[in-house]
Records
---
Amino acid sequence: MKKHNINLAVLLIFFFLGAACSSEPGIDKSKFKKLNASAHALKTARIGGASYRQLTEQAVNLSAEVIALKNKVTTKEEKELLDAYSDLSGMYHDGLLLWKYQLEFAPFDFVPKGRIYVGQDIEPIVSKYHFTTESHLYRPTGQQWKSLPEDSIMIVWNNADAQLKIIENMANYR
C-alpha cells in the first residue's frame, strides 16, 4: 500500500511539474486582432481588383500594424506569429514593387509587352523567389538589361496567400 501511495505521489508530482512547465501562455489573439484584420483587408482588396494606389495604402496599414505590435509580444509563439506577419508584409511589398515597375516601364518601347524591367530594386526579389529572367540589349547604348514575366506578380501574390494560411494555422493551433 505504501509503495502504491509513493508511486501515486511521484506520478502526481510529474503531472504538476509537466503542467507548470508548459503553462506559458501561447498567443493572445486580442493583440493580433487589428493586424489580422489589416492582413485580410489587404488580401480582399487585392482579389477585388484594387488599384496600385489603394493596395499600397493597405500594405502601409499592414506594415504599421506589424510595427505597432513589435514591443507588445510577450511569448515565443507571439514573436513567431509577428515574424510571420512581417514576412507577409514583405511579400506584399515585393509584389507592389514589381507592379510599380510594370506600370512605370510599360510606356517605354524597349520593354517587351508582358515583361517587367529588372532594375536594382527588383534584383533581390528575383533572387528571393528564384524567378528566371530574360536578357535584352538596348541597341542605342549597347546596354544589357533583364526582364521577367509579368505573371511574376501573381506568383508573389500566391506566396502571400499561402503565408496568410500559415499565419491562420499558427494562430488557431498554438
Note: Residues 7-12, 15-22 have pLDDT under 50 and may be disordered.
---
Amino acid sequence: MPLNVPSGFKISVFASSLGPVRFMAVSPDGLLFASMPASVGLYGVGAKTDGKIFVLPDSNNDGKADEARAVLTGLTLPHGLAFFNNYLYVAQETTVVRYPYIGNGVLGARETIISGLPGGSGHASRTIGFSPAGKMYVSLGSSCNACEETNSYRAAILEYNPDGTGGRVFANGLRNSVGFVFNPSSGEIWATDNGRDHLDDDLPPDEINIVRDGGNYGWPYCYGKNIHDTDFDKNIYIAIYPPLPCSDKEPSLLNLQAHSAALGLRFITSPQFPASYQGNVLVAYHGSIDRTEPVGYKVALLRVEGNSILGEEDFISGWLRADGTKLGRPVDLIFGNDNALYISDDKANIIYRVSNINL
C-alpha cells in the first residue's frame, strides 16, 4: 500500500468495497459501525435515499473485517453516528433517529427524535456526538458558500437532550464543522471548520476551533483569527463596526491550509501509541477541490499543550501522488475496541486500520 506512516506503525485495509463510507462509531460491545450516506456519495448526482449503516465485526481479531453487514438500509443521507445509553443515534440530513442497541450488531425499532432540520441545499452532512455531561450535539453546515443564513440552525452546532428535546443553538458562525470531538482533559468541544471557496488559493484558512456555548466563530463575515472577509461583506462591519471589524467574533485556535478540507479529528488516547503521542490530535484532510494545486489528502498530527497547538506534521500521507493522482480521501478517524486507529475513505471506499508494528 503506497501510504506513508511514521516509524513504529503499520497500515492495512480493514474493509473494502463499502461504497463511500464517512463517519464511524464503536458499539458498547466493541463493534465498528460506519455510515454510507448514499451510493453516489454525499454530494454525487443521483438518488440520496439508499444510505446504509454497516457493522464490521472482526471476531478472530486478525485486523480484517469478517464482513460488512448492512444493519440499516434505505436511509436518506445518514452521516454522523454515536452510541449513548444503549442506543445507536444516526444523524440524517433533516432528522436524527435512534435505535435500541440489542448487541452483536442487532438493533431495535427506530425512533425519530428530531425532525425538520433544514436541508435541501449546501452542506448535507450532519454530525452527532455526546458530551461527558450527557448532552447531544449536532453539527449542521451552511446552505451556501458565503451568505447570510435565514435559518439559525444552519452553520451551527446545536445542543439537545438525548431524547431530542431542548434543542437550541450552542454556537454559530461555523461554515461547516463536519468533525467535532470532546477534549478528554477538559470536556470542551474541539471542531474542524471548512472555509469558503472562490476567494484565493490560500484564503480563507480551514480552522480548528474550541467551540464554546454562545460563541460566534465569524462566518460569513470573518475567518481565521478575526480577519474580515471584505470580498463578501460590503456593509456590516464597514458601516457599523469600524475600526475593529470581527473583534466581537471568536478567533480560530489554529489556522489550517486553505481548502485542505479538514473533517474528522480525534484526541490520541490509545495505548498502542507511544507516550509522545498521547493527548495530541489527529485530523483527516479530505483534500481540496477548489485550488490550483491540490492540498490535503492526508492525516495530520497536531501537537497539543493545554489549549494551545504547538505544531503540525504529517502522520499519514500518500493519497495524493506526485503526478496529481488522488488514491483516496480520508474522512473520519476513531480508535477501535482493540485500540487500533480506523480511518474511513469515501473515494477508495475503504476503512484502513493503523496499529503498532509490534502488535
Note: The CA atoms of residues 294 and 323 lie 11 Å apart.
